[in-house]
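Supplementary Text 2. Reproducibility record for the structural model of the 259-residue chain.

All settings were left at their defaults, and a single model was retained for analysis rather than an ensemble. We include the record here because the model underlies the residue-level annotations in Supplementary Table 4.
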Amino acid sequence: MASPTLPAALPLSGRVAVITGASSGIGAATALRLARDGASVALLARSKERLDALATTITQGGGRALALGTDVVDARSVKEAAKAIAGELGVVDLVLNNAGYMRPTPLETHPTEDWERMIDLNVKASVRVVETFVEPLLAAAKAGGRSDLINVSSVAAQAVFPNFNVYGATKAAVTHLSRHLRAELGPRFVRVMALEPGLVDTALHEGNTDPGARAWLDSARKSLTWMSPEEVAGVIAFATALPRHINFQQLTLMPTQQA
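Retained model, structure tokens:
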């Protein structure tokens, strides 16, 4: 990854961001972009080695990063990370709730381990992250600053794809959770957004063993121009730099050619 270069004007200067699933894809790209825009970034994922490399890239570019090997499925691991962030970086005012898992499979094949993992990571862990950081988000907003909670959902929350059954259901839960959280937190100036990306070129698609889903994705790679993680990160950076009274409630971000 190229080292981020700090510009003269820093739209996110002074902000403290937590990014889950930060070791690759949208998470890693967003960490680089937010750090470039002036935010201190806490990087959470299970792969500490990859986080350390990302943190080094950020600090060499003049940014500030804290790498924390964290399993967001584990409540104790998340709480320990939150304590370390508060001690090292300060009050969190931006959370990218990004960690996720996707395994499209027909339920008739009884992929119990896969659908349990999707529910644990995409739903239960997402709620856990919100619960852990809601108090600092509210504190930041009460102090008069910008405060953002971005839950990464998927276009699968709205559309129907064969064999994406449990994955689509988990992402629909994330989107609907975000709507309810916005009703709860928005009046207190915490901006909540459900970000629903379409096709993004990330490792999320790796490990997909379903022949039908693989054929569809392979065809889409040949016929469509997919979004890059960096392009999604740019949208996140734009949204979080807006004045605090402006909030994207729900943003479905798609390649132009994707139906």
